[in-house]
Amino acid sequence: MIDLHGALLVSRGAHAFLTGASSLLALWLLYRMFSRLRRARWVEDTPTSKIRSAAQGLVELVGQVEAGGHPPLVSPLAGHPCLWYRFTVEELQRRGRNTEWRTIERGSSDRPFLLRDDTGTCRIQPGAAEVHPRRRRRWEGNQRRPLGQRAPTGVLGLLGRRYRYTEEWLQEDDQLYALGWFESRGGGRDARAPEALARRIISDWKADYPSLLARFDRNADGQLDAVEWERVRAAAAVEAQQQMRRESTQPVVHTLARPPHKGLPFLLSDHHEEDLGRRLRRQSGWSMAGMIVAGAVAGWLWLALLR
Predict the structure, then answer these.
(1) Which residue, among 188, 162, 182, has the nearest Cα to 243 in the 3D structure?
(2) Are residues 158 and 240 in the same domain?
(3) Is the dihedral of CA 152, 157, 161, 163 positive or negative?
(4) Tens digit of pLDDT for each residue in 195-251?
(5) 3-state secondary structure of 191
(6) What is the spatial distance between Cα 243 and Cα 52, in angstroms, rounded to a whole number?
(7) What EC number(s) does its UniProt record assign (predicted)?
(8) Are 132 and 276 part of one and the same domain?
(9) Number of domains in the chain
(10) Over the stretch 103-154, which tens digit does the pLDDT of each residue have?
(11) Angle separating helix axes 12-45 and 273-304, nearest 10 degrees
(12) Residue 71's domain spans which residues?
């Protein structure tokens, strides 16, 4: 047994568990404190760009969300028409004399939607985003999935299982703040050098060598000589130019998604930019307070070993 400064006697196993858990919690809260603070700095220090003139890479955009021609999504718990949702289902479970809410199901949508400002539209891919929505509803019921199901009443309702539902969503025409990795495709922006494109075309032709021979083997000797290879290269150069012209006429498509480099943020929120920054700083502050408490408990437990 280990004496915790005269306040309590605990077994060595319990002491090791409590010390490890409080130490890990303090380290996690320390990481979260700096992570939230760094995100707040990104939000506050990154200038807002217009979609048409935005640079490639990490950018901040503000505009209205649109479905982009798709029918709206329907949130799975409450049936709200929306463009993005996130939900959690918890069950009230008994452990001895105590009861606690345990998460049994959670999920979110990942269908892309559009962000529009006064210069154009950008396709948002929300699958890996950290989303901070204003719309949030929490309620309780007697069914695992409340939508479209009739809850039991009377004695069955009192004796049945208890569930708690949480749902968040973004609606069409919401004002959205977005910070992520911006890329533009089409309109000749991603065209390669004509020489590289011609080499790729020749490589594709060589994959079907019989067709290549049928097209360029003028003397029918079953192989391509130097003159015939020159014709192949000339034809590939012409094909490359034609392909580049076709690609240059394609409309430009802008996308915002998760950055390819670790540590860069991908944030979506219908909070105002200043409100989002304050929200992230509050989360950082609460994490710091929790880290101080967890660190003090961990230190108190570690000191008990030195007594």
Answers:
(1) 188
(2) no
(3) positive
(4) 888 888 889 988 888 888 888 888 888 888 888 889 889 998 988 888 877 776 677
(5) coil
(6) 25
(7) 2.3.2.27
(8) yes
(9) 2
(10) 999 999 999 999 999 999 999 999 899 999 999 999 999 998 887 555 555 4
(11) 160
(12) 2-186+251-304
